[in-house]
Structure to design on (338 residues):
């Protein structure tokens, strides 16, 4: 794997000059909404920290997983991918993947840290909108992806398809929440449903292809882990039976 | 599996090329510009500069490169720890 590190570094160094983001930028949400989203997000982050501490004591191999999937969420969520059919670019969320391996509350923590670093140093998102962005990408992305995965497992779908569902759900639900946050805060005299629909539909040409890509990557990583370290999957209580 | 990984890496390497090729005039604007900021402006809110404004000249490019490199290294380091070095610690199947 170390042999591929230079390739990975080169790949990441190819990031473009402008920050093409999906997060809500600084100054867009009014102060009251910023406070509200912080108030909603912080208990999830706090409980996630408690869960990470508990799990690392029970299972020493948990921290390397936090390292892998925490870094993955950070890199995925600042990695712009152009979508030719839409003529725009955006990035995956990665929180469906991290929720499957770390649990949804721990996934909220890694999303929060990623968004904080991006807001501080990469002009990506914002500090005042951190609560709102954590709610959409961290909480709804993680729990939505996790629920889709769990539902897929209950339906006895193949591991890849469960991962695909998780990736698609995490991505599309994140954007639905971003659209809802914008519509709730800014709709003014316009009908809420109409504003929400317009914003969400405007995201779709870019996000549908990306959500499929994110789902395929999530499913592919699950298959890789099942092949190389099936014991990791067996330790996850929500995984159900893991076939060889 | 190695062939699949190599193909995925190649694909990911090729994907940013169109984005890099248009630094002078962005042809691939992000959805933050085309959706979030567009609708916010229409509804009466303007984005404002970040508190720490790193979007100045090539500074942002440098920081993205640095962040990507560090993030990629952390991911690769722990990936090696879990999937290469950690394979020998794998619990036996029951």
């Amino acid at each position: 794997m170390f042999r591929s590190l230079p390739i990975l570094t080169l790949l990441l160094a190819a990031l473009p000059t402008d920050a093409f983001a999906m997060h809500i930028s600084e100054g867009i949400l009014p102060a009251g909404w910023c406070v509200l989203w912080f108030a909603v997000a912080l208990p999830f982050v706090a409980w996630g920290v408690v869960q990470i501490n508990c799990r690392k004591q029970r299972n020493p191999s948990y921290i390397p997983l936090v390292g892998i999937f925490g870094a993955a969420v950070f890199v995925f969520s600042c990695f712009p991918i152009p979508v030719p059919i839409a003529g725009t670019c955006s990035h995956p969320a990665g929180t469906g993947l991290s929720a499957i391996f770390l649990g949804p509350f721990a996934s909220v923590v890694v999303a929060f840290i990623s968004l904080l670093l991006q807001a501080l140093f990469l002009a990506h998102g914002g500090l005042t909108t951190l609560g709102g962005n954590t709610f959409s990408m961290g909480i709804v992305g993680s729990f939505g992806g996790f629920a889709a995965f769990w539902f897929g497992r209950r339906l006895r779908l193949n591991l890849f398809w469960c991962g695909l569902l998780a990736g698609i759900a995490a991505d599309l639900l994140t954007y639905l929440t971003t659209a809802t946050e914008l519509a709730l805060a800014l709709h003014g005299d316009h009908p809420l449903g109409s504003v929400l629909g317009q914003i969400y539909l405007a995201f779709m040409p870019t996000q549908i292809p990306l959500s499929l890509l994110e789902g395929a990557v999530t499913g592919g990583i699950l298959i890789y882990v099942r092949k190389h370290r099936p014991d990791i999957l067996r330790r996850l209580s929500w995984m159900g039976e893991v076939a060889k | 599996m190695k062939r699949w990984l190599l193909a995925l890496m190649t694909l990911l390497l090729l994907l940013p090329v169109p984005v890099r090729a248009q630094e002078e005039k962005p042809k691939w604007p992000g959805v933050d510009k085309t959706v979030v900021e567009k609708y916010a402006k229409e509804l009466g809110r303007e984005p404002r500069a970040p508190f720490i404004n790193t979007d100045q000249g090539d500074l942002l490019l440098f920081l993205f490169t640095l962040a990507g490199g560090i993030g990629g290294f952390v991911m690769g380091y722990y990936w090696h720890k879990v999937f290469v070095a950690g394979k020998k610690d794998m619990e036996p199947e029951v």
